[in-house]
Amino acid sequence: MPSHTPIAPAVAGEISDRAFRLYCYLVLESDGGWVTVQDVADGCNLTNHQAREPLSELRGAGMAESRRVYEMGTHGRKTWHTHFRLPQDTTSEAKA
């Protein structure tokens, strides 16, 4: 799947270098599924806070989708986690 995902929007767009790195991670590692901010940050050797703004940048450019999920956190309490993925039209083109 990743070899068929279009990279041109990321190269031609006006996104930051860090946002491009995170987009590449989503293309290569997510398989079109939802990944947490922490997964993306870990995959790109960034902190959670360093990954948040570039991911929002991708969402604003229409290159990623996000959703918030109320789930159990690492400290045993429920909390909101944000998940990101490539837009579904991108992943469906890649599967075709």
Question: Quick summary of this structure?
Answer:
By secondary structure, this protein is of the alpha+beta class. The protein is 48% helix and 19% strand. It has a three-stranded antiparallel beta sheet with strand order 1-3-2.
What does this structure look like?
By secondary structure, the chain is α+β, with helices and mostly antiparallel strands. It has five helices and three strands; from the N terminus they run ααβααββα. Strands 1-3-2 form a three-stranded antiparallel β-sheet. Helix 2 crosses helix 4 and helix 3 crosses helix 4. The N and C termini lie close together (9 Å). The C terminus is likely disordered.
Keywords:
single chain, 96 residues, alpha+beta, 3-stranded antiparallel beta sheet, 5 helices, 3 strands, disordered C terminus
Topology:
Layout: H1 8-12, H2 17-29, E1 35-36, H3 37-43, H4 48-60, E2 65-72, E3 78-85, H5 88-95
Antiparallel strand pairs: 1-3, 2-3
Helix pairs in contact: 2-4, 3-4
How far from one another are the termini? 9 Å
Task: Extract low-pLDDT stretches.
Answer: 91-96
Indicate the mean pLDDT. Answer: 85
By secondary-structure content and strand pairing, the structural class works out as alpha+beta
**Sequence of strands across the biggest β-sheet:** 1-3-2
Count, helices: 5
Q: Give the % helix.
A: 40-55%
Q: Tell me what portion of residues adopts beta-strand conformation.
A: 15-25%
Structural Rg: 13 Å
Main sheet properties: 3 strands, antiparallel
The tally of strands reads: 3
* Sequence of secondary-structure elements: HHEHHEEH
Shape: globular
